[in-house]
């Protein structure tokens, strides 16, 4: 295929709209208006599944996996109705391309429900749940056409290639970048619509990149296209020093470095997917976080530099963590092989470790694990260790505060573990009454 060299093509802008930004017809119309304002540049739009449809499709998966096909089909009906309602409100009832796309995806999900799921839950999960993003992208393309934009719809499954690790697939960067550059030829002032969160594994089956992975998708496309910028359109006016829902004194951070955001995300901040920073940092692409509710707000700019004046205390709060305490039963010392075994079990059960304390004969780890995996995780760990655990704990990570003790931040909470270095303090605690 003949291609215009990227160095000679006008620069791309990548824009990502999450589920909150496209939860209804107004959201799609607002996205179209925002793209109309960027009419002199080449735009790639990444969309997530609408609203809470991913959670709804997860319920469909659970019902079908446990053999309740009628219940699974019934759980699918509200998802179908929500998309058709938005299509109607957008004036797309007679739009053949939109209706054909919606019908194609719903038929594929109904067929998957009717078939025997097979032995691999995660593969079956990806087969159904990934279609929420496809449905959303069909509506986005229709809304953009309705707004008079020149639109090209593309299938991320044909461009993002990964291994076969379902629900947490790892990107084959060389193949992915080649496919993106081949399949996204330059077209003046066009808006190209793709899906976040999804790709194809080595065996050709659909995979997902991890929950909230659409940010990562935007970074993948941006790196391949050497984009001028990536903009994440959110329902908040930028990145804040803490979640305003829990900390009323949280303040907007006008500037952040890739490294700071990477650390915040890995400590559990939900504003940006942890894998997003790597591709952008390596390519030097700025990340802009803006409010789709008020685009005139200044937002947050993320790049190579920390702000000249430093940061205020940055807080990340996680809830529902499990503290697992492991003790060797034969009075021997804890060694590297024991620790390696524990973390291999965590990988097997898709368990994220946030805080670790290693002693002579014991290991304590604060983790997030899906409820349906917890019993199996504890059982396997019990084959080598005596296991104790505490549930429903909070983890507060505070960066850039060397003054205050843990009690300042957690109040009357009962402290279980605390770790501190020059920049970061972490407190694992049970909330006070």
Search tags:
single chain, 433 residues, alpha/beta, Carbamate kinase, VC0802-like, 2 domains, eight-stranded mixed beta sheet, six-stranded antiparallel beta sheet, 36% helix
| Low-confidence regions | none
Mind describing the biggest β-sheet? 8 strands, mixed
Class from secondary-structure proportions: alpha/beta
Terminal Cα separation, in Å? 65 Å
Shape: globular
Query: What is the count of structural domains?
Result: 2
Strand order of the largest sheet: 3-4-2-1-7-9-10-8
CATH topology of the largest domain: Carbamate kinase
| DSSP, total strands | 16
Fourth-tier CATH superfamily name of the largest domain: Acetylglutamate kinase-like
Order of helices and strands: EHEHHHHHEHEEEHEEHHEEEHEEHEHEE
The fraction of residues in strands falls at 15-25%
Q: In CATH, what is the class of the largest domain?
A: Alpha Beta
